[in-house]
Protein: Heme peroxidase
Amino acid sequence: MNADIEQLRAACERDLGDPASWPMPVGYPNSLALCIIDAIYATGARHETVDTIIERYRSYRAGQGGDADTDGAPELLANVEALGGPEPWAAQIGNRRPTSTRKDAPLRSVALTEVAQAFVALGISTTEDLRVVAADPELAKEAKRAWCAIPGQRSGFTWRFLLMLAELPGTDPSVAAYVAREIGRDGPIDTAGLLAAVADAAGWHADALHQAIWRFEARRAHELPSSA
Structure:
Protein backbone atom coordinates (compact mmCIF):
# COMPACT_ATOMS: atom_id res chain seq x y z
CA MET A 1 0.00 0.00 0.00
CA ASN A 2 2.81 2.42 0.90
CA ALA A 3 4.51 1.70 -2.42
CA ASP A 4 1.25 2.47 -4.25
CA ILE A 5 0.90 5.74 -2.38
CA GLU A 6 4.43 6.82 -3.24
CA GLN A 7 4.05 5.75 -6.88
CA LEU A 8 0.75 7.57 -7.28
CA ARG A 9 2.06 10.68 -5.53
CA ALA A 10 5.08 10.75 -7.88
CA ALA A 11 2.77 10.46 -10.91
CA CYS A 12 0.58 13.30 -9.66
CA GLU A 13 3.62 15.51 -9.05
CA ARG A 14 4.82 14.72 -12.58
CA ASP A 15 1.49 15.27 -14.35
CA LEU A 16 -0.60 17.76 -12.43
CA GLY A 17 1.70 20.72 -11.91
CA ASP A 18 2.06 22.78 -8.76
CA PRO A 19 -0.79 21.91 -6.35
CA ALA A 20 -0.96 25.60 -5.46
CA SER A 21 -2.14 26.23 -9.02
CA TRP A 22 -4.97 23.67 -8.88
CA PRO A 23 -8.38 25.29 -8.79
CA MET A 24 -10.23 24.68 -5.57
CA PRO A 25 -12.75 21.90 -6.12
CA VAL A 26 -16.09 23.23 -7.24
CA GLY A 27 -19.58 21.88 -6.83
CA TYR A 28 -23.09 23.20 -7.15
CA PRO A 29 -25.26 20.79 -5.15
CA ASN A 30 -28.38 22.94 -5.54
CA SER A 31 -27.92 24.42 -9.02
CA LEU A 32 -28.27 22.27 -12.11
CA ALA A 33 -27.89 25.47 -14.17
CA LEU A 34 -24.39 26.11 -12.83
CA CYS A 35 -23.46 22.43 -13.18
CA ILE A 36 -24.43 22.54 -16.86
CA ILE A 37 -22.61 25.80 -17.54
CA ASP A 38 -19.40 24.64 -15.85
CA ALA A 39 -19.41 21.19 -17.45
CA ILE A 40 -19.97 22.56 -20.95
CA TYR A 41 -17.32 25.28 -20.68
CA ALA A 42 -14.70 23.50 -18.53
CA THR A 43 -12.91 21.42 -21.15
CA GLY A 44 -9.95 23.15 -22.71
CA ALA A 45 -10.44 26.35 -20.79
CA ARG A 46 -8.51 27.87 -17.94
CA HIS A 47 -10.54 27.49 -14.79
CA GLU A 48 -10.45 31.28 -14.35
CA THR A 49 -12.34 31.60 -17.63
CA VAL A 50 -15.12 29.32 -16.40
CA ASP A 51 -15.19 31.13 -13.06
CA THR A 52 -15.77 34.39 -14.92
CA ILE A 53 -18.71 32.92 -16.86
CA ILE A 54 -20.23 31.53 -13.66
CA GLU A 55 -19.90 34.90 -11.94
CA ARG A 56 -21.48 36.75 -14.88
CA TYR A 57 -24.43 34.36 -14.73
CA ARG A 58 -24.72 34.81 -10.98
CA SER A 59 -24.58 38.59 -11.33
CA TYR A 60 -27.20 38.69 -14.08
CA ARG A 61 -29.58 36.44 -12.14
CA ALA A 62 -29.11 38.51 -8.99
CA GLY A 63 -30.04 41.59 -11.00
CA GLN A 64 -33.27 39.83 -11.94
CA GLY A 65 -33.98 39.01 -8.32
CA GLY A 66 -33.07 35.37 -8.92
CA ASP A 67 -30.51 33.07 -7.33
CA ALA A 68 -28.12 31.27 -9.65
CA ASP A 69 -27.17 28.86 -6.87
CA THR A 70 -30.66 27.37 -6.84
CA ASP A 71 -31.42 27.65 -10.59
CA GLY A 72 -32.38 24.53 -12.46
CA ALA A 73 -32.49 23.72 -16.16
CA PRO A 74 -35.78 25.66 -16.72
CA GLU A 75 -34.28 28.83 -15.21
CA LEU A 76 -31.18 28.45 -17.38
CA LEU A 77 -33.37 28.12 -20.48
CA ALA A 78 -35.39 31.16 -19.44
CA ASN A 79 -32.16 33.12 -19.04
CA VAL A 80 -30.99 32.17 -22.54
CA GLU A 81 -34.39 33.14 -23.96
CA ALA A 82 -34.45 36.44 -22.04
CA LEU A 83 -31.16 37.43 -23.65
CA GLY A 84 -32.38 36.57 -27.14
CA GLY A 85 -30.98 33.07 -27.66
CA PRO A 86 -27.65 31.24 -27.48
CA GLU A 87 -25.60 33.77 -29.48
CA PRO A 88 -26.59 36.84 -27.42
CA TRP A 89 -26.16 34.70 -24.28
CA ALA A 90 -22.62 33.87 -25.40
CA ALA A 91 -21.89 37.57 -25.93
CA GLN A 92 -23.25 38.70 -22.58
CA ILE A 93 -22.56 35.80 -20.22
CA GLY A 94 -20.61 33.01 -21.90
CA ASN A 95 -18.05 33.34 -24.68
CA ARG A 96 -17.81 32.43 -28.34
CA ARG A 97 -15.83 29.25 -27.81
CA PRO A 98 -17.07 26.49 -30.14
CA THR A 99 -17.79 22.94 -29.07
CA SER A 100 -14.90 21.59 -31.14
CA THR A 101 -12.30 22.60 -33.72
CA ARG A 102 -14.57 21.58 -36.62
CA LYS A 103 -15.24 24.46 -38.96
CA ASP A 104 -19.01 24.19 -38.54
CA ALA A 105 -18.97 23.46 -34.80
CA PRO A 106 -21.72 25.27 -32.87
CA LEU A 107 -20.96 27.54 -29.96
CA ARG A 108 -20.89 26.05 -26.50
CA SER A 109 -23.84 28.27 -25.64
CA VAL A 110 -25.83 26.31 -28.25
CA ALA A 111 -24.77 23.01 -26.66
CA LEU A 112 -25.69 24.36 -23.22
CA THR A 113 -29.16 25.30 -24.45
CA GLU A 114 -29.72 21.93 -26.12
CA VAL A 115 -28.61 20.10 -22.97
CA ALA A 116 -31.01 22.09 -20.81
CA GLN A 117 -33.85 21.41 -23.26
CA ALA A 118 -33.06 17.69 -23.31
CA PHE A 119 -32.99 17.52 -19.52
CA VAL A 120 -36.30 19.33 -19.15
CA ALA A 121 -37.84 16.92 -21.67
CA LEU A 122 -36.59 14.03 -19.51
CA GLY A 123 -37.98 15.58 -16.35
CA ILE A 124 -34.55 16.53 -15.00
CA SER A 125 -34.98 20.09 -13.80
CA THR A 126 -32.88 20.18 -10.63
CA THR A 127 -29.74 18.62 -9.16
CA GLU A 128 -32.00 16.50 -6.96
CA ASP A 129 -33.69 15.17 -10.12
CA LEU A 130 -30.24 14.42 -11.54
CA ARG A 131 -29.20 12.55 -8.40
CA VAL A 132 -32.38 10.44 -8.52
CA VAL A 133 -31.80 9.66 -12.19
CA ALA A 134 -28.11 8.85 -11.66
CA ALA A 135 -29.05 6.29 -9.00
CA ASP A 136 -31.21 4.33 -11.47
CA PRO A 137 -29.11 2.52 -14.12
CA GLU A 138 -31.77 2.67 -16.83
CA LEU A 139 -32.66 6.32 -16.26
CA ALA A 140 -28.98 7.22 -15.99
CA LYS A 141 -28.29 5.53 -19.31
CA GLU A 142 -31.05 7.55 -20.99
CA ALA A 143 -29.85 10.83 -19.47
CA LYS A 144 -26.24 10.13 -20.43
CA ARG A 145 -27.33 9.25 -23.97
CA ALA A 146 -29.14 12.60 -24.24
CA TRP A 147 -26.12 14.49 -22.92
CA CYS A 148 -23.61 12.72 -25.17
CA ALA A 149 -25.79 13.36 -28.24
CA ILE A 150 -25.15 17.10 -27.84
CA PRO A 151 -22.33 18.49 -30.03
CA GLY A 152 -18.96 18.21 -28.33
CA GLN A 153 -20.07 15.90 -25.52
CA ARG A 154 -19.81 12.48 -27.17
CA SER A 155 -16.82 11.20 -25.17
CA GLY A 156 -18.71 11.29 -21.88
CA PHE A 157 -16.01 13.28 -20.07
CA THR A 158 -18.29 16.25 -19.56
CA TRP A 159 -21.17 14.00 -18.45
CA ARG A 160 -19.00 12.60 -15.69
CA PHE A 161 -17.83 16.07 -14.73
CA LEU A 162 -21.47 17.17 -14.52
CA LEU A 163 -22.11 14.40 -11.97
CA MET A 164 -19.02 15.47 -10.03
CA LEU A 165 -20.21 19.08 -9.99
CA ALA A 166 -23.61 17.95 -8.73
CA GLU A 167 -21.69 16.27 -5.89
CA LEU A 168 -22.82 12.75 -6.57
CA PRO A 169 -20.84 10.23 -4.52
CA GLY A 170 -18.22 8.03 -6.13
CA THR A 171 -15.01 8.29 -8.09
CA ASP A 172 -15.01 9.38 -11.71
CA PRO A 173 -14.07 6.46 -14.03
CA SER A 174 -11.35 8.49 -15.74
CA VAL A 175 -9.78 9.23 -12.35
CA ALA A 176 -9.99 5.54 -11.41
CA ALA A 177 -8.36 4.64 -14.74
CA TYR A 178 -5.51 7.09 -14.07
CA VAL A 179 -4.88 5.56 -10.64
CA ALA A 180 -4.92 2.00 -12.01
CA ARG A 181 -2.58 2.93 -14.86
CA GLU A 182 -0.07 4.71 -12.64
CA ILE A 183 0.20 1.99 -10.00
CA GLY A 184 0.12 -0.75 -12.64
CA ARG A 185 -2.86 -2.62 -11.23
CA ASP A 186 -5.58 -4.46 -13.18
CA GLY A 187 -7.62 -5.86 -10.31
CA PRO A 188 -9.95 -4.13 -7.85
CA ILE A 189 -8.51 -0.94 -6.35
CA ASP A 190 -9.70 1.23 -3.50
CA THR A 191 -9.32 4.35 -5.64
CA ALA A 192 -10.92 6.73 -3.17
CA GLY A 193 -8.81 5.35 -0.34
CA LEU A 194 -5.60 5.67 -2.34
CA LEU A 195 -6.37 9.23 -3.38
CA ALA A 196 -7.18 10.15 0.22
CA ALA A 197 -3.91 8.59 1.40
CA VAL A 198 -1.89 10.43 -1.25
CA ALA A 199 -3.60 13.71 -0.42
CA ASP A 200 -2.97 13.17 3.29
CA ALA A 201 0.70 12.28 2.79
CA ALA A 202 1.31 15.27 0.51
CA GLY A 203 -0.83 17.77 2.38
CA TRP A 204 -3.18 18.22 -0.59
CA HIS A 205 -6.94 18.76 -0.66
CA ALA A 206 -8.42 15.37 -1.62
CA ASP A 207 -11.27 16.79 -3.74
CA ALA A 208 -8.88 19.19 -5.49
CA LEU A 209 -6.64 16.21 -6.33
CA HIS A 210 -9.63 14.30 -7.74
CA GLN A 211 -10.61 17.21 -10.00
CA ALA A 212 -6.98 17.90 -11.01
CA ILE A 213 -6.68 14.31 -12.24
CA TRP A 214 -10.01 14.63 -14.08
CA ARG A 215 -8.78 17.77 -15.85
CA PHE A 216 -5.51 16.06 -16.79
CA GLU A 217 -7.35 13.05 -18.23
CA ALA A 218 -9.77 15.32 -20.11
CA ARG A 219 -6.82 17.03 -21.82
CA ARG A 220 -5.12 13.72 -22.48
CA ALA A 221 -8.12 12.24 -24.29
CA HIS A 222 -7.87 14.38 -27.40
CA GLU A 223 -6.86 17.43 -25.68
CA LEU A 224 -10.51 17.95 -25.35
CA PRO A 225 -13.57 15.82 -25.16
CA SER A 226 -15.21 18.48 -27.30
CA SER A 227 -13.28 17.24 -30.36
CA ALA A 228 -16.19 14.86 -30.92
Observations:
- Confidence is low (pLDDT under 50) at residues 222-228.
- The two ends are 38 Å apart (CA to CA).
